[in-house]
Amino acid sequence: MSSLPRFRPPQLGFLAIVVMAMVLGFGAAAGADHSEGAQRMTAAALGPWMLLAGLHARLDAFLRAPERKAWLSLPIAPTEHWRAAQRERRWGLALAVTAGLAGLAVPALLGGLHRPLVTLCEFAWLGLFAALIEPCIPAWSSWLGRRFDDTAPATHAQRALGGGWTSPEAVVHLYAPAVGVLGATALAMPGQLSIERAFEGMALETPHWALALAPLAAAAWLRVRARSQYATGYFESVAWLDEATRALSGDGYPRATPRFAAWVKDPWVRLQLISFWRQTPGAPLRVLALLAAPWTALLVELPLGLWAGACVAIALLWIEPLSRLRELGRATRWRRFGASLPLASSAGVGGAGSSAVPRGAWAWLAAPLVLSLSEVLWVWRMQA
Amino acid sequence: MSALPLDVRGLSKFYGQHRVLEELQLQVQAGEVVALRGPNGSGKSTLLGCCSGGVIPDAGELLITGVDLRRQPLEARRHMRVLPQQSELPPGLTGRELLAFWAEVFAATPADRTEAEALGELGEALDRLASTYSVGMQRRLHFGAMAMGRAALFMLDEPFAGVDGAGRERLCKWLQAQAQAGVGILLAAHDADANELRALGAREYRVGSDTAAAPDGDADG
Questions:
Q1: What mean pLDDT value characterizes chain A?
Q2: What is the distance, to the nearest Å, from the Cα of residue A157 to the centroid of all Cα atoms in its chain?
Q3: Residue B141 counted as domain residue
Q4: Residue B94's domain spans which residues?
Q5: Assembly ipTM
Q6: Cα–Cα distance between B29 and B8 in angstroms, integer?
Q7: Which residues of A touch B (CB under 8 A)?
Q8: Total domain count, chain B
């Protein structure tokens, strides 16, 4: 079999990648205001964040996507699932690395970076390690996301690291992404130092080559093992992850109705708002971060570029769930549901191309963004 | 290799502290129809989930035609066909494309595909997007998948739910034919399916008596 169909369009986290690229570029340029060392530090610190942007979406197809569970009972070799998921991940990572390079290239072209070629090469080197290590994240998750013997070290680790947040078999899913990104960053670091040395015109001795290439060999070795590790655990880890996800979703009793819902007169709008609020993890915190970010950034006196990037990144915390709401509005099930109700706001909801999410709901949900933008403009004027 | 299409030995499953299945033994002979019965939340769907690999049991062994489902997951799956309680079909694909997919997965012959199309009786709708099908049509499309290749065991979670009278009769006859051909059938059913179960000569297997539902929120299960 050459390919497995996708249940839903790939979620590559486009927006997250673009925004992080902007932050990377802004950050590097902001560092340039100070010194070359500060600039290099900023770029190095933001590099892993660039890799984190869209990571969840890139890895979703390996173990979490609905088709993995739906086809678990079919005799499809895990390697086929791996191949299907890899296509999406490769494309997403290529986009992230390219966006990162572009994000750095813009200030470089505008003369905002001290030695742009070094920074670009260092980021590209990190991208190479990400390409090797990233597939290991779902592989480790699959391999360790199952049940072992009671006396096995893996079992002890699962229990010790769980902290009661999830079932022991699903613990690995909490740590694997961070371990992967930090691992790629740590392994890339000696090579980045060698790159810097080379650009400074100093000769690269055997130890420098060894320090750069040994981590590369280690990463390549991990990558080679990844597919078989994924295949080993696939059939059990998908089931365990599904069970953990359902257990985490609670006992069926929803969170309390948000107080602001009482202010909304239209019942259809109110229903949508409550649904959105409950389906958005940490919704109150997101709103708080959105409203507080402009002032906090002002207090800690961030450079202007980094401050703007951070504000945009935080805005994403609210924009991302809004984009899911848009998809929901297009769902036929919702439109049919709404069209049959005698509500003024649902008029036309059932028609082709219409949305089940009324304008009133959009207005309510856009309010925090508008408020935050007003704050940004206010702070900007104060700084000017 | 054991001749038994399904051999469940000492199966236990807990959701947290809640015991759903404990030390359960169940055998399905070739050509036998076994109906899982029990109140809502008794563990029927959990048992079917364990047997089909979607739920990992805490203890016990599951053999599909003698092949251990956990040790040889791919080989075991080649011998079984599963009809889930709720159809989950990928969007953007027609019924015909999905049947072609299942045919490839189960190494079905052209004759199987013809039989599958006939069983589903979807006619021209096969060329429409499966996501636009009604519940009953999605169910019938899934029945088509059951006809692909040679299976030793069918596992069906409430197979008659959402199917009209004529569809029930046709499905019942087809299942009878499959059982006569030696396929073991395990299904979860309700009182409303009593006529169909009688027609199939199903042996009743009572599952649990707890009324607390599993955390999947499966009220029937």
A1: 81
A2: 26
A3: yes
A4: 89-149
A5: 0.72
A6: 12
A7: 1, 5-8, 66-67, 69-70, 72-78, 146-147, 169, 235-236, 239-240, 242-243, 246-247, 251-252, 332
A8: 1
